[in-house]
Amino acid sequence: MRSRHGIFKKGERHLSLKGFFPLSIPILPKGLFSCYTVSMQNDFNFCPNCGSKHIQNVNMRKWLCADCGFDLYNNVATAVGLIICDSEGRVLFERRGKEPRKGFLAFPGGFVDPNETAEEAAFRECKEEIGAEIYSVHYLCSFPNTYEYKNIVYKTCDLFFEANLLADAKLTAQEGEVTAFEWRHVRNDQELAELPLAFESARKTLAFWLKDKMNRKKIESETEF
């Protein structure tokens, strides 16, 4: 977990190969991805480089071919999530419209694209998923997450921000991704526990957020005297 840092304001952007994992990996010559299957351990049947069957999954960190030395790391994917509050202090959640965890609550957010900063991804994902723009993001914390999709396990590092909507923002759900929006109070551990959240990283973030708010209030009250 990382602690709070700075502010990013607007103005201040998943490699996908057909039949392969959407990870940050080197581009290999065309036609080398024809002989493999993927399990929940993300394994190859054959080396994508030489076709050998002697390719091993090394502790879920990389794939290593004993014959040609092909060495492919299973890098962690980066994703962002945003805590957006209204004037009543309620937090904005989306009802997920697709797997994994379809129908559960999640923050607006998503995967960071190649050559894109996390802050830029936060602005883009908000525009795509809720149809509204934010004018600033404040880094809050990060937590690891496991994202299972179509029998492939993705390990992610989720970066979370506090964000502010423009005053006249109107929410519009992204078709196929979001079915509804819900504003929920998250003022204590009990209200947090009652939320049907899609991902554990979001639950940990809200717990961190609650504690962070309490600490800020304590500091503010102490500095008034």
Essential attributes:
19% helix; three-stranded antiparallel β-sheet; elongated; alpha+beta; five-stranded mixed β-sheet; 3 helices; 225 residues
Summarize the structure.
By secondary structure, this protein is of the alpha+beta class. The protein contains three helices and eleven strands, in the order ββββββββαβββαα. Mean pLDDT is 84; it is low at 1-8 and 12-40.
Write the layout of secondary structure elements.
Elements: E1 5-9, E2 55-58, E3 62-65, E4 71-73, E5 77-84, E6 91-96, E7 105-106, E8 109-111, H1 118-130, E9 134-149, E10 152-165, E11 178-184, H2 189-193, H3 200-223
Parallel strand pairs: 5-10
Antiparallel strand pairs: 1-9, 2-3, 3-4, 5-8, 6-7, 6-11, 9-10
Characterise this structure:
The protein is α+β, with helices and mostly antiparallel strands and 225 residues long. The chain is built from three helices and eleven strands. The strands form three sheets. Strands 1-9-10-5-8 form a five-stranded mixed sheet. A three-stranded antiparallel sheet has the order 2-3-4, with no helix packed on it. A three-stranded antiparallel sheet has the order 7-6-11, with no helix packed on it. A hairpin with a 3-residue loop joins strand 2 (55-58) and strand 3. The two termini are 32 Å apart. Mean pLDDT is 84; it is low at 1-8 and 12-40.
